[in-house]
Amino acid sequence: MSKLTIxxxxxxxxAGRFTFRNFTLPGDKNHYLCETVSANQITAINxxxxxxxxxxxxDEDAKKLFEKTKDDxxxxxxxxxxxxxxxxxxDETTFKKIxxxxxxxxxxxxxxxxxxx
Length: 117
What we know:
The protein has helices spanning 50-55, 60-67, 92-107, and strands at residues 2-9, 14-19, 22-26, 34-38, 42-47, 73-80, 85-91. It is an alpha+beta fold. It has one domain: Roll (PH-domain like), CATH 2.30.29. It is globular, with a radius of gyration of 14 Å.
């Protein structure tokens, strides 16, 4: 399980996770609920530059996070099939895992996906 932080977008700001092929994202402002989004729902994923991040309408905590980033911290933007979007930050290793899974999901149509049976 890999940690990520939602910084802006159509989901509340807060902690999230990436496991196997799913994102677990904050679902409400109090973080009592969460929403699971499958990697096959992603239509676009791109690295985000620091200049772009500073243009986002984010709260002060998110802006402080941008300024205190570690060398291995990566920020990225995601667009989902339903039109929702989010910007998140995670470590470089997790970002590479996410990219590999998303690429595999995009390259494998649902009717060709391996069965669990």
